[in-house]
Structures are given as C-alpha cells and as structure tokens.
Amino acid sequence: MSATIFLVSDMTCGHCEKTLRGALADVLPDASVSIDLATHKLTVTGDAATAEAAIRDAGYSPERVG
Q1: What is the pLDDT of residues 9-34, one digit of tens each?
Q2: In 3D, which of 61, 50, 58 has the Cα closest to residue 15?
Q3: Which residue intervals of 1-66 are DSSP H helices?
Q4: Helix, strand, coil: what percent of the chain each, to 5?
C-alpha cells in the first residue's frame, strides 16, 4: 500500500494529532498513520483522496507533498 505525505500547517498539538488519527481511522480503518508535529507532516497509507477529504472534514488544511 502506498503512502501519501501531507503538510498540515494548522496541526500544532496533541489534540490535533488525536483528532486527525480519529478522523482517518473512521474512513481508512486499516491505514497506517504517522504524524510529526514538529514538521507538521502526516503520512498515511491508503487512498490519498479519501485521506485528504477526512483531514479537511476534521477542520484542517492539508497540502499533499508526497
């Protein structure tokens, strides 16, 4: 399964991380999610469009970087 990297500049704290992990788990339950708060990068496996929509629906502004 390929991974997609998003830059989520408005993801700034542990609450943001928990919110995004939950949102992604709802739509991509088998996805692997890795979050680096220091660089604002979120890496997720699975369908990139579904992941991006879930991030936006959670109130964040993802930018696909890889």
Answers
A1: 999 999 999 999 999 999 999 999 99
A2: 58
A3: 14-27, 48-57
A4: 35, 25, 35
